[in-house]
Amino acid sequence: MVLTAACAAVMVMVQGAPPGRSVALMRRGPPPGQAAQALYRFAMSSSVQLRDARPSDCQVISDIYNHYVRTDTCTYTEEVETLGERQEWFAQHGPRHPVIIAEAQGAVVGWGSLSTFRDRSAYRFCTEDSIYLRPEARGQGVGSALLAELIVRARTHGFHTIIAGISAEQAASVALHAKFGFTTVAQLREVGFKFNQWLDVLYMELMLT
Question: How much is the pLDDT for 68?
Answer without folding.
Answer: 97
